[in-house]
Amino acid sequence: MKNTTLQLTSFYYRIFFVASFLLLQSFISYSQTSGVLDITFGDTGTFTTAFGPQYDVPQGLIIQPDGKIVVSGTAGTIDGTVTNLVLIRLNPDGTYDTSFGEDGIASVDLGISQFVEQSIPLAIQDDGKLVTVLHKKNGDYYDYAAIRFNTDGTLDTSFDGDGIAEQDVFYQNDFPTAVAIQSNGKILVYGTGTSGSFYKIGLVRFNSDGSLDESFSIDGQFIYDFGYGDNSSSDVHVLPDGKIMLAGYAAMDGTSRDVFAIKLNEDGSFDTSFGEDGIAVFAISVYFDFCGSSFIKEDGKILFCGSITPGSGDYDPFALQINADGTMDTSFGTDGITVIDLGDRPDYGRFITEQSDGKILITGYNDQFDTIKCVVIRLNEDGSLDNTFGTEGKTIFSTGNPDYRGEAMAIQNDGKIVVTGWNRAGTIGGGGLSFEWSVSRFTTSTPVAIQSINELSITLYPNPVSDNLIIQVPDVNTIYTLQIVNSNGELISEQIINHTSYKTISVQHLPSGFYFLQLKNENENYVMPFQKL
User: Fold this and answer.
1) Which of 65, 329, 419, 460 is most deeply buried (CB count within 10 A of its CB)?
2) What is the rounded radius of gyration, in angstroms, for the C-alpha atoms of the chain?
3) Burial, 176: exposed, middle or buried (Cβ in 10 Å; 0-12, 13-18, 19+)?
4) b/e map of 352-386 (b: 16 or more CB within 10 Å)?
């Protein structure tokens, strides 16, 4: 008998191989539930950082073509006297990319003397330069500011001389919330501001050198007011034909707020073929409808997410889909709307995007009274909950701290889902709260687990595998011997799992085919098949 260290004979492995192969194929075919935290990223699935005992809030996220992850946000002092713009760049494994900025961090002081909880979006140019927006102190008020970084995290001084382009839009306080880059390199900055009692929306276009493009709309600025109260900006998109789509929500009477979309021609004039003279308004509830973000689909349809309130202080996330002409897409959800009830507390949808297969992802947060948890929701193309994702279409999680608010999301080329948000790090002097940045990654297929007859909770994934195989064991106090065996019963490798719940095994060197992972301790022996691609 070969390899007498094994408890199973070569003959048994061949018999077991056939049965396990059939079982493994069945697992692969139906066990594709998504929404599992990817423990190969960061620290068991989440990267967390803080810039001091203060208010650190990330709200922008992109994935570069090389797979690196860039997150934008703010870092503020406890007393609120200083809030800086911050960008970080992570390697695909969730560690700092130290070639960016200073040890992976780029920071800019814009003179902000307040706690900032607003969208701080990111856009990437074709040349890899990064553009974000925030408000910048100008005397007693704040102006729009577009900030451009080189690929190494330094400010791009070819952009308006110092890397920062500013524009006073509303003559008092201006707060940009979205940015988009046109194919000609011009930069659109969208936001809200006030020159009187109520907030209006405003869109500004900068040339690629940071100067104001005065050929756009009126003197480089498009300003609109629905006329019933405050107007709030969410997103700006450049459509494939060069036209521009704006999203947000606004007061439409004295008691409610509704979601809106505005479509503009390239020159900043209304595209009157959309909605009613270029504007489409959607009342989802009879009270307050808040738009978190929007997404333009390949077929021209537009997705929105946000929160609605049916009254009594409860908020529920929603998804809304409209046709390219601004009419409601009644084939989606119920008459164009899907509302996700997460409980009787305020729950928010903050960001929406679409997978390559057409399924829809929303991130936000779920208020559970004594804690707030990040939530990721997946819908089918028709707006129904995708029950193969997480638990009944939802993954709700935290980093172990009391609060974790999901703010933005992106999808990697391999389909994995990356979410950023902020969580409560603790209590600081005077009873105040300290917040920190978090970035989490989720797989899009469930780990395939084949357990022994006594159903010990051992998990092996991904399966099939290309590079690294991860095994999770239930008892960190037990020492296991781990062996990889080929289909002929020959021992390929052996190692010890000692006082850890997770073990990562490189299988890059193995030829493609089917193998067995044998895990044993003093009392038990477990065999699990896996496929090397």
Assistant:
1) 419
2) 26
3) buried
4) bbbbeeebbbbbbbbbbeeebbbbbbbbbbebebb
**So where are the chain's domains?**
10-31+454-532
pTM passes above 0.70: yes
Strand ranges, E, within 239-355: 244-251, 257-264, 279-282, 289-296, 302-311, 314-322, 337-339, 347-354
Could you tell me the two tokens for 133?
Answer: 């927006």
pLDDT (tens digit per residue) in 469-491:
888 776 656 788 888 887 666 78
115 to 54, 80, 118, 276, 514: CA distances (angstroms): 10, 5, 10, 38, 55
365-418 tens-digit pLDDT: 988 777 888 899 999 999 999 998 888 899 888 776 678 888 999 999 989 999
**Torsion angle, CA of 354/357/360/364, rounded to 10 degrees?**
-70
How, if at all, do strands 459-461 and 468-472 pair? antiparallel
CATH 2.60.40.3080 assigned to 10-31+454-532: yes
